[in-house]
Amino acid sequence: GAVVSQHPSWVICKSGTSVKIECRSLDFQATTMFWYRQFPKQSLMLMATSNEGSKATYEQGVEKDKFLINHASLTLSTLTVTSAHPEDSSFYICSARDTATYEQYFGPGTRLTVT
Amino acid sequence: GQQLNQSPQSMFIQEGEDVSMNCTSSSIFNTWLWYKQDPGEGPVLLIALYKAGELTSNGRLTAQFGITRKDSFLNISASIPSDVGIYFCAGPSNSGGSNYKLTFGKGTLLTVNP
């Protein structure tokens, strides 16, 4: 089946630093990828839609200057959390939509802890 | 935007018991998806439903797409300890064209006691 990978799987950083998370579709092309955030015991909340070769579309209330998204190829999207603060600590999950089938597959998530 | 109401929020059952959970929406969905999320992992698609009235099985799992297109249920039969996790319903947040975004229910946390 289709596989989506995320790197790193977990990261601890100091407040004020930036962290980059990668999302890759390993065996299919993904024109569109999505970034979600999930707090403990809560559902997935869509942050932004990442489109290859164009600007990301952010959901209401998500700061685009804080959560930088780059989708430079059909198999890679990156999310950079800039000037991270403890309240940014969360589980970040990406998903990739297969360009051929429109099926959407999720990555294993990245646990971010900001100290 | 569209919202999905998922119930129950949590369930504690004994191994071997059957489980049922459901999702409802105030608006029509053209697709219903059921995902399972293990702790510390991303969601994995269990069943996809594309047609009103459709009943689909995947092993011990059975899901149905309600006739009104505003609800869906997921049943798990003869539960086993590895069924533990959070189950989410999801559906496309617009008409379901190729540019859809998924809306998720709040999830049902399932605990299975051996």
Explain this structure to me?
- The complex is a heterodimer of chains A (115) and B (114).
- Chain A has 115 residues and is mostly beta strands.
- Chain A has strands spanning 4-7, 10-13, 19-25, 32-38, 45-51, 57-58, 67-73, 76-81, 90-97, 104-106, 110-114.
- In chain A, the strands form two sheets. In chain A, strands 2, 4, 5, 6, 9, 10 and 11 form a seven-stranded mixed beta sheet that branches. In chain A, strands 1-3-8-7 form a four-stranded antiparallel beta sheet, with no helix packed on it.
- In chain A, a hairpin with a 6-residue loop joins strand 4 and strand 5.
- The radius of gyration of chain A is 13 Å and the shape is globular.
- With 114 residues, chain B is mostly beta strands.
- Chain B has strands spanning 4-7, 10-14, 19-25, 32-37, 44-49, 55-58, 61-65, 71-76, 85-92, 102-104, 108-113.
- In chain B, the strands form two sheets. In chain B, strands 2, 4, 5, 9, 10 and 11 form a six-stranded mixed beta sheet that branches. In chain B, strands 1-3-8-7-6 form a five-stranded antiparallel beta sheet, with no helix packed on it.
- Chain B starts with a strand and ends with a strand.
- The model of chain B has no long low-confidence stretch (mean pLDDT 92).
- Chain A binds chain B through residues 4, 6, 32, 34, 41-44, 46, 49, 91, 93, 95, 102-109, 111, and chain B through 35, 40-45, 88, 98-99, 101-102, 104-107, 109.
